[in-house]
Amino acid sequence: MFLRFLFFKNHTMTNFSKHNFKGEKALVRVDFNVPLDENFHITDDNRMTATIPTIKKILGDGGSVILMSHFGRPKSGPENKFSLKHLVKHLHGLLNPTNTEAEGDFAGTKVFFADDCIGEQATSQAADLKPGEVLLLENLRFYKEEEKGDEAFAEKLSKLGDVYVNDAFGTAHRAHASTAVIAKYFDAGKKMFGLVMEGEVKSAEKVLHQAEKPFCAIIGGAKVSDKILIIENLLERATDIIIGGGMAYTFIKAKGGKIGNSLCEDDRLDTALDILEKAKQKNVSIHLPETSIIADKFAAEANTRDCPSDQVPDGWMGLDIGEKAVGIFSEIIGKSKTILWNGPMGVFEMEKFENGTKKIALAVAESTSNGAFSLVGGGDSVAAVNKFDLAEKVSYVSTGGGAMLEYFEGKVLPGIAAISE
Ligand code: 3PG
Ligand code: MG
Q: Which of left, alpha, beta for 108 (phi over 0: left; psi -120 to 50: alpha)?
């Protein structure tokens, strides 16, 4: 109910696209919490590329952009491996795609870096910023005040810009200084969602409240305990719920199946039965994988076979859905008009166990091309659609992991509430 209310209010909120940023310094909260390898190379830049249209719109209007983000979970103060300076070059490249190496890092749209997110230096760098220029502030979480939602810290940040744009959907479930508290230091016409946030909220609302039926939710991943709340919320909305990944074996064992050494949360067997019972009452079909690809060890070179999921021999474990399950799941997905996918079907990082997730990704892509609306979210399922090169073939790929999950659990996200209120 409350989400409906928020959605309704969105229409009355300050609209980012209609706002003219000319001469303004926009303080934009982004989620640049991207994975890096040991050489500080970005291994997945989705969250950065997603924000480029927001940044470009502000620059195009004749405004300047001050970007703030957290990066990782630093424990106490600055640490090189958590510095956002490692992202500057890549950000510059994204903003200047035609720029050649020879022109140098700072040709085209200029991207500056501030070694701190508050203080004298950051303040003067922000003040000196000219229209068309970008300043990236150092990791907000180098201050413990960020996660504490400290008001004085939020107020200091707020002074850096004339207008606050929250585009950090990935962090919208955190009630931190820069994601929520800061909003109160800006007048109603000077705080708004950016395009990422708008797109995320719009797609999530479409699935939660305007889903065309049949609506199929595909839920995977290792643990039932992580997904109980989302499943319960989906029982009120979905037509079919497909359950894959490690969590399926807790359900299968609860129903009396033999799961060998498959992943299982023994303290959740009753929860699993309870979910199955509720689904029956609500007329929602829950689909468990009838067959599994089982392995004699958790390893890329394990011996494997395809067997009924409730007859896994001792010493073996299910690491992917089997061929028959792929067929049944694909058929349901093919008939759906709305598809929500969170969590992989198996250990898709290993080639022997990628087939289930890959075929499900293909089924989602095909159903989308036949007119279904599909939303994929959660770190692993997004990594999967990227791995199989299908990100362009689904309707929407969420930049949120935990945030997306909480949204679909029906929670009000502090980052969204702070602006909607
Ligand atoms: C994420 O990657 O889930 C977001 O950036 C939030 O990060 P956090 O879980 O460390 O708060
Ligand atoms: Mg997280």
A: left
